[in-house]
Amino acid sequence: MPVTERDLPDLVIGDDGLARPRWAAVDPLLRDYYDTEWGMPVRDERGLFERLSLEAFQSGLSWVTILRKREAFRAAFAGFDPDAVAAFDEHDVARLMTDSGIVRNHSKVEATIANARATVALRADGGLGDLVWSFRPHETPRPRTFAEVPTTSPESVALAKELKRRGFAFVGPTTCFALMEAVGLVDTHLVGSHRRGSSGVWS
To answer: Would you say 152 and 131 are in contact if contact means Cβ atoms under 8 Å apart?
Structure first.
């Protein structure tokens, strides 16, 4: 029988001699994402809007499902250009709801458009990058096992509250913590992983 993620320990030594968490040890797409992107700093508006949108679409689904559809999402949402998405209307919503390349969830599609408009509005007050990064904590977790990796934090609760106040949707504390992990505000790479401390944000 083939080895599945559930069969593996929390930290796995790959055929290249590098240690990765089991979620990044089996699927080549996840492995490449883990090795090159996850946890690296993202500060630009479009990059953060894309990650925030994908994290919202991921809610209730596996991340690899979203990752496999990422290019289709980019095509459907104008490369996650906030200005372009903010101009979407009911015809665009109808178009998106017939696009089999993405996750066709009406609430999440509407939320992405609303979030684009909120992102544009934030420019008058420093922008999305400044807002998100203002919630960087003073210290980061140092998990040795998956059981030690948190799913929320006081900062993610506060970030979710502020984003909602600013007109964003589908931005609960868990989604915001996942965003913080993905864009480098916290480092939840397991201790011993070859990526631990690689972002330059945390030593």
So the answer is: no
